[in-house]
Amino acid sequence: MITYSTLTKRGKRKINEDAVGVKEAHDGIFCVLADGLGGHGAGDIASNLAVTTSLSIYEEGKIDFPEMLELCMNKAQESIIEEQQRNERPNEMKTTAVMLLIDGNKAQWVHIGDSRLYVFENGEFAKRTLDHSVPQMLALHGDISEEEIRHHEDRNRLTRAMGVEWERPMYVLSEPYDLTVPTVFLLCSDGFWELIKESEMVDLLRKCSKPDIWLAKMEKKILRNGKKTNMDNYSAIAVFV
Fold this sequence. Notes:
Blueprint: E1 3-9, E2 18-25, E3 28-35, H1 43-60, H2 67-86, E4 97-103, E5 106-112, E6 116-121, E7 124-128, H3 134-140, E8 172-173, E9 177-178, E10 183-188, H4 190-193, H5 198-205, H6 211-225, E11 234-240
Helix pairs in contact: 1-2, 5-6
């Protein structure tokens, strides 16, 4: 059985440039979350295009792993580039994106930018996607710790995003993931994960049996941690399998 819940809030910003969507079809479930890059203009347009385009592609017809995820990413990228051209705003309307597809006892995901997907197995943190950002590169090289990514001075400097012309696909596709144990997936924007640690996610997960309750408890933690900051938009999708 699969249950899910979504959350997207403006934080302390004037507009919400995050977008989320979930579609159940073809005996599976498809989730997408995008975080528009406000510093480049029209981030809300880009994130909404990424979500609506990919949901439409998934709904249109069943395609096997991993072709569906790649098609959703590529079509979303095309729609954003086309919108830039219509509005004569080249290289604007940028966004991150993370997508999850579950079908039967198999899952797979794809991402670009610093919106993350977390995997929890039997209530324990198992893995997460790696950000396409300057701080993530520094962490991989051992120059800073993983924890220091959250508040690094260059945290908003991305190395990959949608809405930039690609010579080749810039997203990262995961390996197929077999659902053999109770598994929880969390898709979230940086405004969410920067204000809550993985250990806090796990502590709250152990107290929750439903995704909406887990998201609500994490949101309370995020609001407390971000009380004295200029909180960014924050969004998440929780999926319990």
